[in-house]
Design a protein that fits this description.
alpha+beta; Glucose Permease (Domain IIA); single chain; two-stranded antiparallel sheet; 300 residues; 14 strands; 10-stranded antiparallel β-sheet
């Protein structure tokens, strides 16, 4: 049969003629197999197209969900970082208050020192399992922040009670900036602007135009007005309990020896007297004659 001959006769009705096509058996079998393969391939292709459409829709939904989760995680991370900064700022404020009123410092580890969620969600996509892990870490970090905030509230209440009991101490503590301007040199070691050698700077240098008012940072008594080769015109105010403030390079003073001043009183004016590189106020805080960092006391 495979090697037999088959004839296909085609009749043309109008012309009354015929056409005969001669085929062998194996050719008919091959044509039949080809048709079967084409039909099967088409069916498989249609199935794959339907399956790919389903997969594409599923992929789009997954990407959309991943983008939404990433956006939520980024927003949550930013909020947590903001809360962390707020807690740190409150703790710094608490520390300054405790220094001012001689309240014992608490050696507690803050959430800020342990870091945040510990993941960077801003670089590309995170796998789903890592996003879930990050979300759990963020929730744990948020819980720690909540605990820290409650503990800080308790500590603040303790500070408030101590402040009420030590109102006179607070009023005599230099807790505000003595002048407006910008700090050009802080407390501590620095290179001398005159010799370039390393020297210890005993206070803060606040640059401002000549004639800028200098305000009393707290209640006190004018204990000294003098001129010195280095500091120029100097004003000293004692605040009790061994605490004293010094103001140097002044243009002129606005108080008298022995005068009692209150916080906010204009006590002098910024100048350029003594050895100076320009108009500024040199401001010191001393305890028992020993210079300390004025930033420990400034609250505003």
């Amino acid at each position: 049969m495979l090697f037999g001959r088959f004839h296909i006769v085609i009749f043309r009705e109008k012309r009354g003629t015929t056409r005969k096509i001669q085929l062998r058996g194996w050719m008919l079998l091959g044509i039949g197999l080809l048709l079967v393969l084409l039909l099967t391939g088409n069916l498989v292709l249609l199935g794959n197209m339907a399956s790919s459409g389903t997969l594409e829709r599923s992929l789009n939904l997954t990407e959309k969900s991943a983008n939404e989760q990433k956006s939520e995680l980024l927003n949550l991370s930013q909020k947590l970082m903001g809360l962390q900064k707020d807690v740190s700022r409150i703790r710094d404020f608490d520390s300054k208050l405790r220094v001012m009123i001689n309240l014992e410092q608490e050696n507690t580890m803050s959430v800020a020192s342990r870091g945040g969620p510990g993941q960077d969600t801003s670089r590309g996509y995170l796998p789903i399992y890592r996003q879930e892990l990050l979300a759990r870490k963020m929730n744990e970090f948020l819980r720690q922040l909540s605990v820290e905030a409650r503990l800080e509230e308790v500590r603040q209440q303790e500070v408030i009670q101590r402040l009420r009991a030590n109102k006179d101490v607070l009023e005599s503590t230099p807790s505000v900036w003595p002048a407006g301007g910008w700090v050009t040199s802080g407390f501590g070691w620095r290179g001398s602007p005159f010799t370039a050698r390393k020297e210890f700077h005993k206070g803060l240098d606040i640059s401002a135009p000549v004639g800028t008012p200098v305000y009393a940072p707290s209640r006190g008594v004018v204990s000294g007005i003098e001129r010195a080769p280095d500091y120029g015109l100097v004003l000293n105010i004692t605040h009790g309990a061994g605490l004293m403030t010094r103001y140097a390079h002044l243009q002129r003073v606005n108080v008298k020896q022995g005068q009692v001043v209150q916080r906010g009183d204009v006590i002098a004016f910024i100048g350029d007297s003594g050895r100076s590189t320009g108009p500024h106020l040199h401001y010191e805080v001393r305890i028992g004659g020993v210079p300390v960092n004025p930033m420990r006391y400034i609250l505003n």
